[in-house]
Amino acid sequence: MTFVAVDSTTGQSVLLKLPDPNQLADAATFGRFRRELAIGRRLNHPAVPRLIAAREEGRQAYLAQEFVAGESLSERPERGPLPAAASVAIAVFGSALACMNTGVRVTYAMGRDS
Question: Which pTM was predicted?
Answer without folding.
Answer: 0.60
